[in-house]
């Protein structure tokens, strides 16, 4: 699965990069008896200083069961994360609540500030969109360049639009919102996007663990339509033949880490990677990391 | 994920059916230090009667390491499976050698008769093809009915063509061969098929365990082309609107067990299941069972 150019990055390297973490450094994090994340072992002593909020059990590090409901858990967690942010353990603050639950469809057990979610290994759910064009020249894909002033991954290449699913938002509703805000794609066009699957990976990052799920949409854009940067997340859009996109993924780390997986999934679904490739199964299955991480 | 009709079969039921087995009843089966399958605990005493062929280790039930190479292992296994067939422990005999290896791309450690593979929980690799038509009426799919005289799953519904990948055959070569033999699709047409992913499941069946991998292809057939039964595996082909296929999968077990998963994967990739469906992630991820089964 290497390009003819012979350089050393390959599709599988991106799967590995998105799944790089040392499980021995983390303990499962449980709330109300359900595993919802993972906490770094060396953060545990600090967390136990917050009296009455956590307890270190045999099976998992857990929230104190006496914090009986959604509201009391969320309030206790907000106090903890505010302090941790002050101590410099959390970079940034997004004012975006993430749901904490054992699975996407499961009952939310509390909410947590987005920037603090990695410290507790909380799964984040996002939407990524492949914006492509099919014309007489074949298949092309719109690629965004992230703004130079973004705190995360500035200047890196990105999908046409993407965003985290905020607490209470639907998957499709997030797609419509991000397409509009980020890429100036009106709902009359973004509404034609098709959900085509989901990707799961887990890596260390942002001070903790990032077990992420990306819902993936394909959006065939009209040949006369050009996405435009909207909210400043993206500085420019470029339309590249799909072969150029594939080569860029295959032999560089120029795309933001998880966008590589979204492109690889697109290449697989559109028949652009041969099933006889020796890496084929590892690629297909590498996009779907098993849910229970520790 | 249930049809409006309200009957009790649903897409997830097919995922569950294809992954139903009791792991406590099996031990890993290893060859040359590599896990290649699983053996039922209650078959182990019988297998140990074959002097010098197997040994019951702490980590796994294993082939005797003194059987040093591919040929000697294959010969010893052939003697074992011939006896087991005589004893009625193996139904049928296909005269089709399966590779035994730790993974599809890995070095083959021995070969085993196809009908005997489930007794040792050997992963089988197959190709399944979605034959579809896209015209003014939308998307339709060709559905086959299996011959009434087939020993396995007679009269059940099936994909347009499918087959096991025999030892030494490539994935694409198997697709071309099966399309020709089973559905009378000439290479000029089957050659347009796109590989679009792979499905993995593991269930009890055929006297043992079936950890199967299906390489999936989409083949858009010309509107004026009609697949015809070739080798007698299929008795008739029917072209159904995709909604009818989806409903049939959703509320019946009329399709051969694993073909349901191939159709569900098609529905997901073609945007026909909403990402906001509460079962969405379970469906997407249920098509990719983790490789290490025990």
From the structure above, extract its key features:
294 residues, alpha+beta
Biggest chain contact: A-B, 36 and 36 residues
Please tally the helical runs of chain A, counting DSSP H or I stretches of 4 or more residues. 8
Q: How widely separated are the two ends of chain A?
A: 29 Å
Low-confidence stretches of chain A: none
SSE topology:
The structure is a homodimer of 294-residue chains.
Chain A: H1 11-17, E1 26-31, E2 34-40, H2 44-48, E3 54-56, E4 61-63, H3 70-86, E5 97-100, E6 110-113, E7 124-135, E8 138-146, E9 157-158, E10 161-164, H4 171-183, H5 187-190, E11 194-205, E12 208-220, E13 234-241, H6 242-250, H7 257-269, H8 280-286
Parallel strand pairs in A: 1-4, 7-12
Antiparallel strand pairs in A: 1-2, 3-4, 5-6, 7-8, 7-10, 8-9, 8-13, 11-12
Description:
Chain A is α+β, with helices and mostly antiparallel strands and 294 residues long. The longest helix of chain A has 17 residues. In chain A, the strands form 3 sheets. In chain A, strands 7, 8, 9, 10, 11, 12 and 13 form a 7-stranded mixed beta sheet that branches. The first copy, chain A, is 26% helix and 30% strand. In chain A, α1 crosses α7. The model of chain A has no long low-confidence stretch (mean pLDDT 94). The radius of gyration of chain A is 20 Å and the shape is globular. In chain A, 43% of the residues are buried. At the A-B interface, β11, β12 and α8 of A face β11, β12 and α8 of B.
């Amino acid at each position: 699965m290497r390009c003819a150019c012979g350089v050393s990055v390959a599709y599988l390297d991106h799967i590995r990069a998105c799944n790089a973490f040392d499980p021995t450094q983390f303990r499962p994090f449980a709330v109300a008896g359900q595993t919802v994340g993972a906490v770094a072992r060396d953060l545990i002593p600090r967390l136990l200083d917050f009296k009455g909020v956590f307890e270190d059990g045999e099976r998992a590090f857990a929230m104190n069961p006496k914090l009986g409901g959604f509201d009391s858990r969320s309030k206790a967690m907000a106090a903890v994360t505010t302090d941790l942010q002050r101590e410099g353990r959390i970079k940034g603050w997004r004012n975006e609540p993430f749901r904490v639950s054992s699975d996407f469809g499961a009952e939310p057990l509390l909410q947590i500030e987005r920037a603090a979610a990695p410290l507790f290994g909380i799964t984040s759910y996002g939407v990524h969109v492949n914006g492509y064009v099919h014309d007489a020249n074949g298949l092309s894909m719109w690629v965004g360049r992230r703004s130079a002033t973004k705190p995360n991954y500035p200047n890196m290449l990105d999908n046409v639009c993407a965003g985290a699913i905020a607490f209470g938002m639907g998957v499709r509703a997030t797609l419509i919102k991000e397409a509009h805000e980020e890429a100036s794609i009106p709902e009359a066009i973004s509404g034609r996007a098709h959900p085509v699957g989901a990707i799961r990976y887990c890596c260390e990052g942002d001070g903790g663990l990032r077990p992420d799920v990306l819902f993936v949409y394909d959006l065939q854009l009209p040949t006369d339509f050009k996405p435009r940067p909207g909210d400043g997340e993206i500085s420019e859009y470029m339309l590249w033949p799909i072969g150029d996109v594939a080569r860029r993924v295959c032999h560089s780390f120029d795309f933001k880490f998880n966008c590589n997986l979204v492109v690889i999934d697109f290449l697989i679904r559109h028949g652009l990677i041969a099933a006889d490739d020796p890496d084929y199964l590892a690629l297909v299955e590498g996009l779907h990391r098993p849910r229970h991480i520790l």
